[in-house]
Amino acid sequence: MTDSVGREAQYEVFADEFADHAANGFHNAHYDRPACLELLGDVAGRRVLDAACGPGLYAAELVARGAQVVGCDISERMVELASDRVPRADFRVHDLADPLDWLPDGSVDLVLLALALEYLDDRVAALREFHRVLRPGGALVLSRQHPTGDWLRLGGNYFEPRVVAETWSRGWQVRYWTTPLELTCEELYRAGFVVERLWEPRPTEAAAAISPERYERLHREPSGFLAIRALPR
């Protein structure tokens, strides 16, 4: 296996399925999305970059809360879905491996990168671009798979960054990086950020009705996601 994920739009082939699944699914609607929105805080009147926006589910919440949203995704179909879902936002196809050359310095108040960090080969370069486009007083909120959960599931050397290939329960084939938590913090630091909050979220109460077993497990085990709010330093 190569030590890179590359520039493939992996979610393109199951974008519509993912959009239907994530709209009200356990991990997206009742676990990651509430955590990211909580860490973003009051977004009314603020300009938010939704990087790797997917089908626009986070953007829809942000616009409903009064934000002005610009978004991007490597998948053309995801951008179509996001544009249909949130016509008041401005979405475009963009690979985060490339500079955000369509955004000037200091042009957004907040950046959201939800569950996409692990698909980037050069994470520091992408994080530096987020730092560049943030205004003074801005913040980056990102979520990622919990590295301890990855290690418990996959085994091997926890501290060794590596690319993993998996087929998820719906037959979706994905390749992504698994990295230790210290590396994520180091990459943020190298990009000019300092971690303000690190959150190991718990599912919302509504999630208990969807899957009591997953709800209980995520209240006792680091088997899901974590979220970080980082500030430019």
UniProtKB/TrEMBL annotation:
<dbReference type="Pfam" id="PF08241">
    <property type="entry name" value="Methyltransf_11"/>
</dbReference>
<dbReference type="GO" id="GO:0032259">
    <property type="term" value="P:methylation"/>
</dbReference>
<feature type="domain" description="Methyltransferase type 11">
    <location>
        <begin position="49"/>
        <end position="142"/>
    </location>
</feature>
<protein>
    <submittedName>
        <fullName>Class I SAM-dependent methyltransferase</fullName>
    </submittedName>
</protein>
<dbReference type="InterPro" id="IPR013216">
    <property type="entry name" value="Methyltransf_11"/>
</dbReference>
<dbReference type="InterPro" id="IPR050508">
    <property type="entry name" value="Methyltransf_Superfamily"/>
</dbReference>
<dbReference type="InterPro" id="IPR029063">
    <property type="entry name" value="SAM-dependent_MTases_sf"/>
</dbReference>
<keyword id="KW-0808">Transferase</keyword>
<keyword id="KW-0489">Methyltransferase</keyword>
<dbReference type="GO" id="GO:0008757">
    <property type="term" value="F:S-adenosylmethionine-dependent methyltransferase activity"/>
</dbReference>
